[in-house]
Amino acid sequence: MNSGKSVTIDGLTIGGRSPVRVESMLKTSLADIAACISEAEELFGCGCELVRVSLPELELAENLKKLVKNSPVPLMADIHFNPGLAIAALEAGCPSIRINPGNMGNGEGLAKVVSLASERGAVIRIGANGGSLNKRQLETAAGDRAAALATAVGEQVRLLRGEGFHDIIISAKSSDVMETVRANALLAKKYEYPIHIGITEAGPGISGAIKGAAGIALMLAQGIGNTIRVSLTAPGKDEIEAGYHILRSLGMRSRGVDLISCPTCGRKLIDVMRLVEYVQRILPKDLPENFSMAVMGCEVNGPQEAAQADLGVAGTADGFVLFKKGVPFTTGTIDTLPELLKTIMQDITA
Hints:
Elements (H helix, E strand, L loop, with lengths): L5 E4 L2 E4 L5 E5 L7 H14 L3 E5 L6 H10 L4 E4 L4 H9 L4 E4 L7 H14 L2 E7 L5 H6 L4 H18 L5 E6 L3 H14 L4 E3 L7 H17 L5 E2 L7 H14 L8 E4 L10 H11 L9 E5 L14 E5 L4 E5 L2 E6 L4 H13 L1
Parallel strand pairs: 3-4, 3-10, 4-5, 5-6, 6-7, 7-8, 8-9, 9-10, 11-12, 12-13
Antiparallel strand pairs: 1-2, 13-14, 14-15
């Protein structure tokens, strides 16, 4: 999505005309530096473009320095309360930090953080979340939590602007979807800074993914959001996969395969669920961008319903039919399908 301003984190441009970026956060403690590097490498392989890492104590600053040197993904240190931690992260070479200027203690501490960030060319993400709103902010907003979130971000923006700093990303998150959407709509009308969006503490599994997708899609559809995180109680790779699914569904990014499959009904002539699981296992990771694969239960929902698919399979009375862009090109019995699909996939990526 376009924003008036853009920032650059270790070569990664966010905002302006850049694509919506997909990010996550390390689930591993920085105390285990080997595991952190391994997780960062895994996330990079999944398409992660920015990863946050929590720096809760000064003793871990040396490990952060090692992570900065070894992570293939640009890093953002996640800091709370202590400006000394933000300074340590910047001194460790971290190209961006996430802070809440309102809880950085006295103005002198924040001034030191901003001065060092300017010197190092680092980006600062500021933001508010539903759990950090104070009584004054809620009273000022007459109890409207979305307006209070936007107010909290505005206060933080003023603090950084007061120090002459403008390499900023803003963020307002809540575990309530509509509260988050309304808060970000208010911010998007007022500021040109890149906006990070997501639904915080969305939860586990399918419920968390759906909750995150609902909020993120609502904001993206309004032109709001330059970087996203689907916050799940799950491995980071699941967050990245969910993020790209959202963007692909909205026609904004094309990483990964668009797997089209029917919901099945009494007309199905093949075991769609089983075949989908098989197809997911054998799909090569190096398929072309925008590649789509369809698995359909019968000819009624076959080539016609999935006519846009690059490759598709549909059940028939005698077995299956394979088609490309809605045009059938071969048929066979179910027992021959697995090897045939493997061969076709190898030919596509050859």
